[in-house]
Amino acid sequence: MKDKNQSKIEARALGRNIRMSPIKIRRIIDRIRGCSYGKALVLPEFMPHKTCYLISQLILSAAANANTNFGLNKSDLFVSEALVENSTYLRRFRPRAQGRGYPIKKPICKVIIKSSSNFVGKVE
Fold it and tell me: Which of 26, 71, 77, 121 is 20–30 Å from 7 (CA)?
């Protein structure tokens, strides 16, 4: 049993103002949450979604932060936490009949990926 007072070292990568719906990003994030670093890099490579490249870049950034700031080995890392948060909407207006304007709301979100050296995710 591990000590509850033991502090866990986590490195994070943050992607802000991403012009994509949070629902579309969550379907990728849910697959990599709790995976090892190597598996989390390989999984988005073979998914047919537009945001997979962005998620891969955030995983690489979190691993580089862990290596640079804390001296952790990349092969020992796991994606301990992955969050997608709603942000504001990018507002545009579409001209409609009789001089009216129809609002178009384009979603923006924020992605946080935390990696740590001790495993706290799902077991496969």
Answer: 26
